[in-house]
Amino acid sequence: MRVIQNEKLRTVLSYLIPFVLIPAVVIGGIAVFRSRGYSYLIFAVSALTILLFVCGFDRRKTGTRRLVLVAAFVALASAGRAAFSFIPGVNPVTAVTILAAVYLGGEAGFMIGAFSALVSNIFAGQGVWTPFQMFAWGMIGLFAGIFAKYFEGRKLRLCVYAFFCGIFYSLIMDVWTTLWTYDAFNLPFYLASITSAVPYTAVYAVSNAAFVWLMAKPFSEKLGRIKLKYGI
């Protein structure tokens, strides 16, 4: 995978892709394609996610190592989601994404979150909701990486962040519900969707914090050594 050499271009794309291009593709795509073209949306979000990851490559040639670790964490998160599929609102995708992003960086975190949604939906079911899940979990990983210095080695902060990520994820998915139902954003229906989803959101938020609490120490030990050894 080739590194983008222009530093200014890499910086611009690092902000443009997650905050402008992917949201535009996800929200605009569902308005244009509805259920008929969700596969195109998934492809577009996947391509932009890979491009974002490439923008995070540096000249220390750690990109390939990071890519291998990203693939491993995507597999772990996807397997975890499948393992807990019998419990509504409980899965370790958010926890794995956050903990990995703290050590691997925001671009890697976005890729882990986005591709965990894509891969795990092979078992859970693909649909027009998949791009929204990719975006939501991707942004959770991105911000975990951006604020890594505030989270690394601080379990309580990670748990608080994971809790609010559960709320954030639910708010994003309720946007999909509203757009899907009305073909446009309807604020009263969106607020009603948020209200009706409160029990699910609460379970998901609390379970996120619980997963992080249980997984933070082993993750920090393993990833800390990897980070130090390979300079990732």
Write up what this structure looks like.
This protein has 232 residues and is mainly alpha-helical. The chain is built from 10 helices and no strands.
CATH architecture designation: Orthogonal Bundle
N-to-C series of helices and strands: HHHHHHHHHH
In percent, how much strand structure appears in the residues? Answer: under 5%
Question: Stretches where pLDDT falls below 50 for ≥5 residues?
Answer: none
- Helical percent range? over 70%
Count of DSSP-assigned helices: 10
Q: What is the compact description of this entry?
A:
The protein is mainly alpha-helical and 232 residues long.
Write the layout of secondary structure elements.
Blueprint (H helix, E strand, L loop, with lengths): L6 H27 L4 H18 L7 H21 L9 H12 L1 H19 L5 H17 L1 H4 L3 H28 L4 H10 L1 H33 L2
Helix pairs in contact: 1-2, 1-6, 2-5, 2-6, 3-4, 3-5, 4-5, 4-6, 4-8, 4-10, 5-6, 6-8, 8-9, 8-10
